[in-house]
Amino acid sequence: MKAQANGEETMLQDAVRYSKEAGSLVMELMNGPLRIHEKVNLSDLVTAVDVRSEELVRARIASEYPEHWILSEETDGGTNGERGGADPRPGYGWIIDPIDGTINFIHKIAHFAISIGIVKDGEPVVGAVFNPVTGDLYTARKGGGAFWNGQPLAVGRERELGQALIGTGFQAKDWHPDSVVLRQLCSLTGKARNVRINGAASLDLCHVASGRLTGFWHDGLYPWDVAAGLVIVREAGGVVSNRDGGEFALSDDSLVATNGAVHEALLAVLQSAAR
Ligand code: IPD
Ligand code: CA
Ligand code: CA
Fold it and tell me: Which residues are listed as membrane-spanning (predicted)?
């Protein structure tokens, strides 16, 4: 079997190949009928293109790595926002977001990606995030470094929160005036340099890895949003935790990723705003 004969570097190269193939399909279908469908509410959307992209990647994995399990948003996510399949399973598994940033995709904002992470016994070991519009490809393998289009990545050098540019986003159910994330946003004003909401968590994590963002926090993300990006952040020298500061696990409901230097300061602001 292919998986036994090859190592994680081969799996990474295959993940890149699948993400590029899915990216070509997404670009081809982008200007046709999208058939937009609401999942949980008006800000949780899926299109026919998400489904086609996911089918393509699942088919490649099933044929080339039949002994590996697969977790993907449109197949496993359900329609009620369940955290399907977040618990670690044994062996190698592929975790797919066929279009991360679907709202950007629908609105023709060139900031969305195909995100493919690979975990081994529950631990993320490989990540590939590909933006098919810009051609930006972010990759990492545990112990092998992180790369943007083949060039090494490193997190930003900001030492203090006052120099930090921080990303965040809303989970669909948090898009209301009393949400915690709004309190946290307010509480960062005057403390961080500024905040960005770019609309694709996988790419936000890659931006932390590349030093464009100093940090990123988000509640309620799913394994497919983060499995790839978190390997990329860690391999670029960053830190990824949950809201309590513990090491992030794929089953966690909160994520804070930074360059390391501002991690404690950011956690302190977020925690006090959430009380
Ligand atoms: C969304 C994006 C967005 C985040 C949302 C996610 P989707 O994923 O990652 O940045 O704020 O919570 O649901 O639905 O576009 O795959
Ligand atoms: Ca997503
Ligand atoms: Ca998606």
Answer: none
Q: 244 CA distance to ligand 2 centroid (A)?
A: 23
* Mean model confidence pLDDT for the chain: 93
For residue 171, with 0-12 CB atoms within 10 Å meaning exposed, 13-18 middle and 19 or more buried, which class applies? buried
Q: What are 85's two structure tokens?
A: 């399949």
Residue whose CA is at the smallest distance from ligand 1 atom 5 = 171
pLDDT tens, position by position, 36-49:
998 878 888 899 99
Count CB neighbours of 78 within 10 A. Answer: 14
In the listed set 125, 152, 179, which residue is the last one of a domain according to the structure? 152
Rounded to the nearest angstrom, the distance between the alpha carbon of 101 and the centre of ligand 3 is: 6
Instruction: Catalytic residue, from 14, 44, 50, 73: name it.
Output: 73
Of the three residues 104, 119, 152, the one that is the final residue of a domain is: 152
pLDDT for position 87: 60
Closest CA to 16 of 133, 114, 121, 92: 114
Counting from 1 in the atom list of ligand 1, the atom nearest the Cα of 199 is: 10
Catalytic residue among 8, 76, 97, 235: 97
User: What pTM did the predictor assign?
Assistant: 0.95
Distance CA 128, CA 147 (A): 10
Q: Are residues 56 and 21 in the same domain?
A: yes
| Bridge partners (DSSP) listed for residue 129 | 115, 138
Residues 227 and 197 in one domain: yes
Q: Which atom of ligand 1 is closest in space to residue 170's alpha carbon? A: 11
Q: In the prediction, which pLDDT does 4 show?
A: 40
Classify 8 as helix, strand or coil.
helix
